[in-house]
Specification:
Length: 214
């Protein structure tokens, strides 16, 4: 089956891309609105790319292609947001935060999520999140009239005690238990994992030579 993207409408492109590019991590983003309301909403057009500077990206679609979502508006106005990572215990509350509540409604309040002060920024993190990244707006690009691409610089991270080995910065995935997004309403666990040791070219050549009996 082959597709020419120029022949697909926006919905078909969305369905295809979000069905194939999986699993996607979920950012439950907290921001502060004009009236001081704490907003929280999930975003799975989300990832990190690069460490120097340390950056994360969010893709925010406008409602009906015209109306900015609260998250995008708040980030544009304040330049600050917190990415709360989502584990199994937080999944149902995350989904409640995806309801299109009006800006004056605080999703953490509705979802019964306690807030904790951030270290560097005004928007709080969610106390129940296993990890949170404090981000300052690096750049915001408006794309195609209906989308905002937010790039944030991570200025601080909070990780729940017991998840991370501080010396080696190794995470304990048995305890972290993040969930990923498949397409639509489908999610996945990260309970099963496997390792593949990455080799250098020299190692690969040595293994090849040993394998071929040379
Ligand atoms: C798991 C999940 C991931 C989502 N990812 C995105 C996304 O990447 N971009 C987007 O525009 N909306 C996304 N949404 C929808 C928003 O969360 C939803 O429109 C929400 O009401 C926006 O809230 P806000 O106006 O408070 O920012 C997602 C929803 C769910 C449940």
């Amino acid at each position: 089956m082959d597709f020419a993207f120029a022949e697909l409408d926006a919905t078909q492109r969305y369905k295809l891309l979000t069905a194939l590019v999986v699993p996607r991590p979920i950012a439950l983003v907290t921001t502060i609105g004009a009236e001081g309301v704490v907003n929280a909403a999930p975003y799975s057009f989300f990832n990190t790319f690069g460490q120097d500077p340390p950056l994360v990206v969010l893709g925010i679609e406008r409602r009906e292609r015209t109306v900015s979502k609260d998250t995008g508006r708040n980030i544009d106005a304040t330049g600050e947001f917190v990415v709360n990572l989502v584990d199994e215990d937080l999944a149902a509350a995350m989904n409640l935060c995806a309801v299109d509540f009006p800006p004056e409604v605080s999703e953490p309040e509705i979802a019964g999520l306690a807030l904790a002060a951030s270290r560097f920024l005004r928007p709080p993190r969610l106390a129940a999140a296993p990890a949170a990244l404090e981000c300052r707006l690096f750049t915001l690009m408006r794309i195609g009239g209906s989308r905002e691409l937010v790039i944030g610089e991570v200025v601080g991270a909070h990780v729940r005690d017991g998840l991370l080995d501080r010396e080696r910065l190794r995470i304990d995935y048995e305890r972290y238990r993040p969930v990923g997004r498949l397409c639509g309403d489908l999610y996945c666990f990260t309970r099963e994992r496997f390792a593949l040791r990455r080799r250098s070219y020299a190692e690969w050549r040595a293994e090849e030579a040993a394998g071929s009996g040379a």
